[in-house]
Amino acid sequence: MPWLRREIWAFSDDPDVLIGQYANLKRQVPLLYLLLIIIALASFCLMVGNVPLLLVGGVSAAFVVIGTFRIVSWLFFLPEPDRISVAEARNLLHRTTLAVIPICLSYLAYSFLLDAYGDPSQRAGVAICLVMTAIGCMFCLMHLPQAAFLVNLLTMVPYATYQLLTGNETFLIVAVIAGTVTTLMIRVSLNAHEAFTELITSRAELAVQRGEAERLAGENASLAMTDALTGMPNRRLFLGQLADRVRNNAQTGRPFVVGILDLDRFKPVNDIYGHATGDQLLIDIARQLRAMTNDSLLIARLGGDEFGLLVDGDAAEAAAVGNQLIALLDQPFAIDGHQLSLGCSIGFAAFPYEGATATSIFDRADYALYHVKADSRGAFAFFTSDLETRLRTETELETALLSAGLASELRVELQPIICLATAQVRGVEALARWNNAGIGAIDPARFIDAAERLNLMGSITTTLFAKAVAHMKALPSGIGLSFNLSTCDIVTPSTIDMLIGTIIEQQIAPRRVTFEITETALMKDYGRAIAHIERLRAMGVSIALDDFGTGFSSLSYLSRLPIDKIKIDRSFVANLAEPGVRKIVAAILSMCDTLGVECIAEGVETTEDCLTLRTLGCTLAQGYVFARPMGIRRFREWLETNREIGGTAGLRSGLKMLPAFAELRKRYPHRA
Length: 672
Fold this sequence. Notes:
By secondary structure, this protein is α/β, with parallel strands linked by helices. The protein is 60% helix and 14% strand.
């Protein structure tokens, strides 16, 4: 029987098969020992009374103790299949196979011993126990056919021989039948083991094929996202990354800038020196650009001599990148003995300020590039409101304003007003935002001007104020709301009625509300504006004069205006370093102190501005140095993160929000 010699005694050379055999044995060998314990106890119960108790009890107890020990060893002390080496697995398979020999001989000898003491019925029981032991062991050792064959060889053959010698034909027939069955089980075990081996091998091959398929898919994906000429990321990858950033950063609020770079004098290179030289030039340029790429800067070739930029950061970081790229590409490239000078132009657009979708932000960067190439090649430019005006016609804007979905598209962002002395949030300014589905984000000044032309300002103002009041109700009671009124609003009785009605209906304390107006709004219809201001102040609302210092006659009739606050225009704050400007601001602060009105500095963007303003005696300020305008959800998160500034712990509590307060505390220790 050559199949027995070949398949029974040879262990597989496949590591996966060996580990798989061990994994199955680790589950099944404990069951094998449990079966042996049960057989030992059954034999004890069957023969007790006919066999000396010390003999039958001692042997059965020994089998139970040894079996229990082996169960515990296999379950708890042998390593898991994923933690065992191939050599260790092979060694354990050999040891398990050899362990069958003493087990089978012990149980066989015990059966012969019990058979000598029993009556016919007990002898039949012993025979059944022995046969069941052999069959059970072979089932448990199905994945180790070498051991299963030894079980059959060491139990059924000696037992049949024993019955032949005793001359009992009945038990001899039982032994022959049992031996035949167990021999057939060997063949079944071999079939199962072959199927098991094929399954393991197939899985391994499938894993290899899957790994190869994944590798090829990765390579194909990489090729699909790589520019064939330069090896840089291509247009498809760039647009995909842009879409991902828009989707993710819209939730996180993190800014980024899109740039489009165009080589200034590339076409003459192709025309004069040929496309081969042009291609080599692009390869050399790409090598330089790849060296600049990092985690916060992606550069991709969009096609031809155009490259896309994704800068993680604000406009200042994008400007630094732009300067670096312009300096890099302004250097001549040596190609085939020719010194080729190109230069580049770049258009930038910042998300979300210049666009809220991937398409709009890309188009705006492209429009900025078109503008800079037309006006000042070899430079970079950001998309601005002026370019927005060129890009969007007033007809489009007015059509959008007349659309039915305007109310749902309008939203309010909040910017905190901070007390420089205590680091407390004294209030928020509500800033109008409109993001139209067709046009995109629109500068407030543009749509307010258009709304005034279309006589829609009243509706827009009341819609925005209602949203601002809803946000205000979600804020602590100590935080006030500043809301801007347009030139039309302050002179329109119906608008004033609706604003007052909203305050009463929403049960908001009027003292928490401040309406900001400009001198221009007052000059349109001074008498009516003053009457409406007096009406608002009569119910407890405060009035602030916005953009103070930019008009012509503010100082001439300031003392006669019924106002409670003055907001210093950002143009003064931005130039505080100039001695003349600093004197003007100091004079404004002194005047406010004399008139008994609060003074708020707008557009504070640096720590030094904070220190200068505090030195001059200004206590209220707002600007990017504290926080950019944000939606109510982000503002509440910001407020919670910096909750100390809303408390009463004094200047020390504001250190978490602004490093400048640490310096303020040093200069004004009595405030800490």
